[in-house]
Amino acid sequence: xxxxxxxxxxxxxxxxxxxxxxxxxxxxDTHLCRDGEEGIITxxxxxxxxxxxxxxMPKKDGFTLAKEIRLTDxxxxxxxxxxxxxxxxxxxxxxxxxxxxxxxxxxxxxxxxRLMAILRRTGSLQNKHQNTFQFGSFIFHYDQQxxxxxDEQQKLTSKESELLRLLCQNINHTLDRSAALxxxxxxxxxxxxxxxxxYIAKLRKYLKKDDDxxxxxxxxxxxxxxxxx
Length: 229
Prior knowledge:
Elements: E1 5-9, H1 13-25, E2 29-33, H2 36-45, E3 50-54, H3 62-72, E4 78-82, H4 87-96, E5 100-103, H5 108-122, E6 132-135, E7 138-141, E8 146-149, E9 152-155, H6 158-169, E10 175-176, H7 177-184, H8 190-207, E11 213-218, E12 222-227
Parallel strand pairs: 1-2, 1-3, 3-4, 4-5
Antiparallel strand pairs: 6-7, 7-8, 8-9, 10-12, 11-12
């Protein structure tokens, strides 16, 4: 199966290499450039599914690089990485045509969830990450927001569907709480965390029909959808 191709442009050699190795371990084909000038040359010579650009770089900063990319390519998704958290920078990034914006320091899990969400939205992951999930005696149709158990159907809300899909994509592995909040609610505030707890409780209620399927709370980390069979 074709691997999604990512361009990483990051002048911090240590972070860049960590990003490259982590994303390669997750099944992506990654290309690392050390500055904006190298980045634009590489982008023009190859086709990428998504770009991860640091903003503060020598020779050519991330904003300038993104503007040059957008002159000839309006569609390839761009995620900005920055040590800054100023609102003006965020707005500038989105005006240029960024798809997302993540502030350092960040967890690798959060970055992975965000880029996968973008790739699913643009269709790059549509074959690799299906909309229908089968676990235990349940069939979950994400696109229809429907959870089936035999002849019974449970219509889910948008938030329930988004949360259950993340759990299904990480079945038998811990879903990082903060990363899930930032992916679905866009921030991990206390209020949103309490809201997510309510949706987890609702999903647990729906899944009670199969004793072999459970959502565990992993203290200090997040949640895990487990199949005991």
